[in-house]
Write a structure and sequence with these properties.
The protein is an alpha+beta fold and 373 residues long. The protein has three domains: 84 residues, no CATH class; 111 residues, Sandwich (Immunoglobulin-like), CATH 2.60.40; 140 residues, Cytochrome c-like domain (Cytochrome Bc1 Complex, Chain D, domain 2), CATH 1.10.760.10. It is built from nine helices and ten strands. The strands form two sheets. A five-stranded mixed beta sheet has the order 3-2-1-5-8, with no helix packed on it. The longest helix is centred in the N-terminal third of the chain and has 32 residues.
Amino acid sequence: MMTPASFISMLALAAGSPPMGPFGMPEQASTIAAEIDFVYQVITWVCIFFFVLIVFLIVVFVIKYSKPPGTKAEGTATHNTPLEVAWTVIPLILVIGIFYVGMKGYINMRNAPLGAYEINVIARQWSWQFNYPNGATISELKVPRGRDIKLIMSSQDVLHSLFIPSFRVKQDVVPGRLVTLWFNATHEGEYDLYCAEYCGQQHSTMLTKVLVLEEDEFARQIEEDRVFMDMLPPDRLYVAGPRLYARCKSCHSLDGSTMTGPTWKGLWEKTVSGETVFTDGTTLKDLIGEGKMFMNPEDYIMQSIANPQQKIVMNFTGAMPTFQGMLSPLEVMALTDFMKNLDKFDEKGVPKDPEDELQRVIDKAKEAEESSN
């Protein structure tokens, strides 16, 4: 049976744009969104109806039975079976109906359809990581339109909660457990993805985007995400920095501002000069060199990414989780190269020279490879 919400959703789908939700809610961009909004509207209007009815009756009774001071009280009935049955049965039917619809929707949302496309999600303070079946690892969630998507999620540290308002889906991500969530996006576009559970100091920065693409474009981009590092010239690895930095930006700034971790502005220069001071009182210049803890500045950066608790910079708490196994050696080299070449990017990580845009470099590499073949 088609509900009004389903009918509106079909009209919007035909028009090519997602319908807006009721009461200022975001657009309805998944198959389940219209159904959830319909239930939400029914509950809201039921509450409004009874609120208005009760307030109206209160006002009527206050006026009708108002008596001047000193009036003798009249005898009244203490029991009315039909009235008591009515105000018990009617609300009971309403809440049973609401419970049934809600439970049906909940069960549907908890059980992904067979054959759904699976994406592994890792939550950590304060970023998301999405691992695809082909081996691609990115910090934005890319999905094909019109296909069932199943997210298999885990947390590396504390309790998080993945929330996509436009899809009307939300699931707590619990440390030590694998939890799942599924959806089917109905419209191309870019949508917000949040952490909806307070998870520490930079909780508000734990957000990213969901990119809904057509199937062919999705397949192309995910394959490119898998191999993009291999397509970069060895002397241009730094152009991958902004994409990789997306996993780091919640804790490290590029403009010199203090966050959970040290800013990357001027970090390479401090590393080379050995100015960095650690919480145990040692300085980096005493730890770099042949036979010492770090062979060279690059080795210090690599080890700090793999084992950030080994040496904690003064005035910081060591909140960084390990990225060992999360980044390939080539990606670590690209991040290091990015730090070395920060002067080629603005404070948001955007290349100052268009020739340093990642996609442009990849496209040129493709053209060179095709011409050589």
